Every structure is written in structure tokens, then in C-alpha cells.
Amino acid sequence: MKKIYCLFFIIGMCLAGQDLFAKITVESTQGEAAYKKGNQWLPLSKGQTIEEGTKISTGVKSWAVINIDGSSLKIKELTMMKVFVNQLTADKHDTHIGLKHGSLQARVAKIGTLKTSFKITTPVATSSVRGTEEIVSYGPRSGMTIEVLEGTVLGENQLGISNPVHGNSVFRLGNDEARPRNLLSDARDKSILKIHDPNITNEENQGYENNASNIIDNPCRFIPSSQSQRPSNVNIQISWE
Hints:
about 40% strand; 4 helices
């Protein structure tokens, strides 16, 4: 009898050190959504199980939603990603997604008292979330963007510089930038009201629109010198909420 108890104890200790059952399944798809198996791209199907190391790609006007142990990940159009890690142990749930290009919308669920780690990595930075919802996008020209829909996200670049991102701020980091941009830059840009002389022509107005960034950065160029003495009417409405 002692030998049997001893055997059960050894088996239990071995199982305790192994990963529990971690599962990724496809909830829904639309359009051209595929996964790579060997050297072939095959269509994703509802109810299909995804393994670690799997690449997933979506085409134009296409998307897929996968369930990662209760967390939801929507793979938006023109996106390529890879499941690096998905492990579930007795005390930790660890998921790591690699985003090559495109956009992912993640809603991360916490499993009981387990320590949850859900990361999305791009070539320039990593997004770490816990019990929240975010949209992560990356492109070779635009760089990485983290938009938080709920909760708090930590954005960290390859130099270890990090910023906590909340619902009113957006993390942006270009491919050639060492530091993330101002987290409130989007809110600032939305608060800028474009005004112009009502007497200018449509062609002149369009020219101002096309060069808005230069106008904002260089206010002295807003009105041509030849018109600087002409009066103009400006209507500004400010609403405090």
C-alpha cells in the first residue's frame, strides 16, 4: 500500500510541473482567413484548434476571431500574426503573440487567481495587457500603435522604455524612433480647430489642408504675407463637457 501511495505522489509531482491544458480555437471567420501548415496555407474553419507556432493571415475585407483560454483575439483584415506561446500552468497563464503587420483587437480575460501575461510583440515594441481590451496595429511605415479600449496596457520598446497606456491615450512608436510619442497627441490633434480666411479661393484652402502639419508647426505661414493685413471673420465655438 505504501508503494502505491508513493507512486501516486511521484505522478502528482510530475504532473504539477507540466503545463495544464491550454487551448486556442477558432470562433468565427469571414473572407480569406488562413493558417500555415508546413509550407501550405490552408483556410481557417470554425471550431478548429490552433497550436503554438501557427501563423495566421487574413486578406482584404477578411477577419478571424480566435478564443485563447477565454480571451478573445480578433485578427483584422490584411494581418499576419503568429502564436509564439500559449501555456497554462497551476499558477500562471502565459500568451505571446507576434504581429508582423496589420491589426489585432484583444480582450483579455483573467483566469481565477492565475497570474496572467498576454503580450503582443511587433518589430519595434511589445504590448503587455492584463484583464483589458486593446487594439494593436503595426505597419512598416506607420510603426506600432496601441489603442486602449478598457483598462491599462503597458507599451515597451526594445530599449526598455515603457509607458502605461489608459483609455484616453494612444501609444505610437515609429520604426526609426527611439522613444514613443506623446500619449496625448491624438487628443491634442482632435482639439485643433482649422480656420482660414473666408475670402480665399477653394484652391488656396485646399493647399492649406494639404499642408496642415506645416501650418500648425509654423503659425507664421498660416496667412500669406500679401494678405496679412486683410481682415477676416473667425467663428470659434468652445464646448466644455
